[in-house]
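Task 17 of the worksheet. Students: predict the tertiary structure of the chain below and write it out as structure tokens. Keep your answer in the requested format; marks are given for formatting as well as content.
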Amino acid sequence: MKPKFLFISIALILLLVPVQAYADNLTVLGVGDVCFSGRLKAIGDKKGYDYYFSSFDKVIKNSDLSFLNLETCVSNLNNPDKRKKFVFRSSPNCLNAIKNAGFDGVSVANNHTLDHGKNGFIDTLNNLKKAGISYSGGGYSIKDAVKPAIFKTKGFEIAFLSFSDVVPPGFAATEKSPGISSAKQESRMMKVVQECSRNYDLTIVSIHWGKELSYYPTARQVRIAHNLVKNGADIVMGHHPHVVQPIEVYGGKVIIYSLGNFVFSPGSDSGRYTMLVKVSFTDTLKLANIQILPAKIVSGKPVPEGGKWVKNLEKILEKKNLDFKIFKNSLLYTSENKLADSLKPFIRFEKQYFET
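Model answer:
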């Protein structure tokens, strides 16, 4: 049976449809890749790093919990990995801006946090601690790297786990060496998710995976995502493709296959189109609503894009010769990946981010 995916379509602009008619009690916000390397460092040093989050700081702060993927080494140590084509390093000054914007936790499980070696990685972890930012997905050993970050809010305990399925040589943590938590060790990953599901009220899994610049998840992404849900994940937040991918509700749980970039030099026109995704729960932690806030990255900064987001994204997809079609039920499919028409739309946009 083919998986059912929801992709963003023009019809969704008109929708304000919650999954359940419950009042929101707990809200969790996720955004994609964040990196202040290269020219974004120069802009941040000049304008201040708060500049990058100023368009969405209220949305971020108004969420009970907000998370991002920190796709960079954050250190003043300079020891670039010469084996890699793209090497990222950001100034520790960026961390205060992440904290000020309202983010509660970050994932360090990706293919760039060790771009400046293990010393740069350890310095990154230490700088996060100094800034008062919780993290998961990395540590001084594998035992440390797979530990969740724990948050307490509104009477609930929430576990935030992070893993990477993109693991350059030497990046994975071992029993005696620092590094990131690898999704390649699936049985270990699932065991950790099970433990968190048993011990905490909500389990969020951030995962770096998939194929760059692909608008659909790979078969491996889908399989891992479904297994994460079966083992207790309530939200799966994906990133790495640098473009947005579908959102799926599977077993009553939320899978965001790719959040795209957020604060990043996009590298392509399609990489400029991103989104913030807010997942709301009832007071009994039933899924209440999913919101998409569309944004476009301009000079590394995400800004509200509104209805133009869908139209411009469609034009990009057409140029790639993708046979996309839109139907009244708001489902979008290609001839190779037909979506079931029985899945009811539930995504809605924030009204204030659309042009009148």
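Marker's comment: The CA atoms of residues 79 and 116 lie 5 Å apart. The first strand starts at residue 26 and ends at 34.
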